[in-house]
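Researcher: I'd like a structural prediction for the single chain below. Treat it as a standalone chain; there are no partners to consider.
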Amino acid sequence: MVFYLLSVVILLCTIACKKNKRKLAWLSFACFTIIYVFLRNIGTDWIEYSKYYNKHNGLDFFDGFFEPGFSAILALFKFFEIPYSVVAGVIALFVCCIYFRATNKYTECFGFVAFLASFYIFYPGLESIRQLVTVVLFYYSLQYIDNDWKKYFLLNMMGVLFHRTGVFTLFFYFFHRYEFIKIGYFAMLPFYSIFEPYIYKALEWFPSIYQKYYWYRMVYGDRKVSVFSFKLLEYIFLACVAIFIRKNRSTHVKAVGNLQKENLTRENVTKYSDLVFIGIGLQLFIQPIFGSTYRILYYSDIGIVMTFCCLYENLQKRYMILAEITMAMYIVLRFYRLLSVSAGAYPLFRSHSTNNWLR
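Model: Treating it as a single chain, here is the predicted structure.
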């Protein structure tokens, strides 16, 4: 907990730095990566993953409990008798490298985005290392969604091999590209409560999916979402920001050194804001009925990170002081929310309970 927050503070310092900001951000993220890779015994799932890994061998890993990609990784490391802590560390290092490569391409404000990602991407990932692989592959694939569908689908099909929720990334391609899918999505959401019992019944034809759906349905049950919840208000605010930015179209690409940096243009803002709009719909209409929707929000939270980045870049260019004040206010709110959660809310604040293991 202390080391994780320390690494976040290091990232925060890069935002205030005026000189050599990008190099300092890279160095700070390297420190964050080292801390993240060597975190141990964190989250409710750690001890149960470790038990599962230690008691299985070879083809036993392919018992259908985990997705085949993750099972293959476990089997490979177990073949060489490598301890689970090393397995988790290697996966964490892979995640950080993919994240670094993508973010370095997407924006010049590397430190700012890394700071937000420490809360929205890496922090939830302490709970589910399988899904974190899928999330960062999706994050990396967003650069291809408009111009290379083959690479987009290849990366996300790899993601599905690590976590079933990766099917969301396949849906998102069509949601982003076709307006009628968006219209259908928002038209159907208010009626989800009517159709959910029939969806639940239909899933009985697919035992592996039904088993997971049933587990989440029974464990989490109904979760009421207040219209004044911090997360939902965050989504709504950024949806408004995205609409404003999309009206101010800017489509040029700016050269920086030897790299071609994607400006957060109208087209890029569109894909990030599409994630935000999906997240709003999930929280308002589905999460009150099916509480484990939070697993899908891990993907839409990428839209939060990148839309905030877009806002910060625009403010930074026009109103530097306003940008810094806005950032300071946000940091206070974010740290307050992180530090004020109850002992049972997040993995860093609780013991190794087995109630939620391996889901």
